[in-house]
Amino acid sequence: MMTRRFFIWTLQPRSALALACFSLIGLIAAVSFSRQPTTIHVRIAEDGGFMPDSIKAHVGEPLRLRLISDDVEHTFALGQSPVRPVTFKPGEPVNITLSFDKPGTYTFYTTTPSSLNFWRMRGVIEVSGDGEAQAADIPLYVHLGLELDKEHESDEEHVELANQPSAERGAVFVNQIPATMLTSDYYVLHSPMETFDELRGEPALQMLSDLVVWDVVAYVWAQHTTSAALIAGEKLYQVNCAACHGENGAGDGQFADEMKAIAEKNNDEHGIQAPTDFTDAEHLLEAKPAILQGLLLRGGMGTGMPMWGTIFTDEETWDLVAFLYSFQFKYQGVHQ
User: Fold this and answer.
1) How many other C-beta atoms can be found within 10 angstroms of the C-beta atom of residue 13?
2) Separation of alpha carbons 284 and 194, rounded Å
3) Class of residue 258 by CB neighbours under 10 A (exposed 0-12, middle 13-18, buried 19+)
4) ∠ at Cα 213 (212, 215), nearest 5°?
5) Which one, of 29, 94, 49, lies nearest residue 68 by Cα?
6) Is the peptide bond before 90 cis (omega within 30 degrees of 0)?
7) Where are the domains of the chain?
8) Which among 13, 75, 125, 294 is most buried, taking Cβ atoms within 10 Å?
9) Which CATH class is domain 38-128?
10) What is the pTM (predicted TM-score) of this model?
11) What is the DSSP string of 120-162?
């Protein structure tokens, strides 16, 4: 009996030590595993895009990602975030760490035009934590009850301008411009063409030629943006839009021919369309700013125009809208 008791007594501390060792090893493994980055493999859109494209994170806890390209150079960018895009090449994985201070759904995407459908390369990071995720604001076009596709259609005659309207030349007539035209409420709901028609009816401007009145319209539009906003809008455009619409807005980006061919072959107004030519006066001068911003937010509904509502901030969409009008109006000399 004594021997049996001694045997049991001698095993107990050894078992406890073994259990403690296994627990410590398990804890170390768990901590080590928790510190391992989440690996994201990336391929062109036609071969899968981001994999995985859905990731979970927690407020206040670092999210470590390892980005691996399986084919060509790609970019990882995080929408509505100050995080700068990260570029990575095949055979050169990149590790990054993200941190979130509030819960919500964050969209990541690429800015590298690796193929025609590169804009489809998107994923989400679901961030949980204390507090409520900020509810998305109702888009302006929804609040105003605007029908984006219907409103963007026009029955006006084709607009042709011999010279590009100049805000600097139009500034000469600032005292003849109705004060309402310089309010933001007016700007978002009126196209340049509508503004031209209203100015054409102003008694003080009736003696002016059409070209001079267009200069006045350019001045009105210049009052609703700034140099900083135009610079920011141009950067957004070159990074995210030029691949289709062209660096100079002429609808001649690197994928334009391919999109035109698809559009002609399918002959479907709801399918892929040729990129819009922003240098065509008819398109922009008949478009309300609220409609352009709405199309940016919502996208082109299958036309190949991406939805930017979860990527651009509200301010960024307005900066981009302001820049688009600069394809028609000269703002030099007005903004310092």
Assistant:
1) 9
2) 12
3) middle
4) 65
5) 94
6) no
7) 38-128, 140-325
8) 294
9) mainly beta
10) 0.86
11) G-EEEEEEE-SS-PPPPPPPHHHHTT--HHHHH---SPPP--S
pLDDT tens-place values along the chain, 336 residues long: 444 443 333 445 555 555 555 555 454 444 444 569 999 999 999 999 999 999 999 999 999 999 999 999 999 999 999 999 999 999 999 999 999 999 999 999 999 999 999 999 999 999 999 877 677 789 999 999 999 987 665 555 567 788 899 999 999 999 999 999 999 999 999 999 999 999 999 999 999 999 999 999 999 999 999 999 999 999 999 999 999 999 999 999 999 999 999 999 988 777 889 999 999 998 899 999 999 999 999 998 878 899 999 999 999 999 999 999 999 999 988 875
From residue 286, give the alpha-carbon distance in Å to each of 157, 158, 314.
Answer: 10, 10, 22
Instruction: State how far the Cα of 148 lies from the Cα of 48, in Å rounded to an integer.
Output: 31
Q: Tell me the Ramachandran region of residue 64: left when phi exceeds 0, alpha when psi lies from -120 to 50, beta otherwise.
A: beta
The Cα 61–Cα 59 span in angstroms is: 6
What is the rounded distance in angstroms from the CA atom of residue 55 to the CA atom of residue 323?
34
**Closest by Cα among 96, 92, 72 to 84:** 96
Residue with tokens 């049996």: 4
Six token digits for residue 323: 């820049």
Could you give the CA distance from residue 52 to residue 33 in angstroms, rounded to a whole number? 18
- Per the document, the length of the chain is 336
Residue in 226, 175, 219 with CA at minimum distance from that of residue 195:
219
Question: DSSP labels for 234-280?
Answer: HHHHHHHTHHHH-TTSSS--TTHHHHHHHHHHH--TTS--PPP-TT-
Token pair in block for residue 9: 């007594």
d(CA 285, CA 182): 17
H-type helices in the chain, by residue range?
2-34, 140-143, 148-152, 167-170, 184-189, 192-200, 210-222, 227-240, 242-245, 256-266, 281-285, 289-298, 314-325
| Type of residue found at 330 | K
Q: Which structure tokens are listed for 144?
A: 């105003």
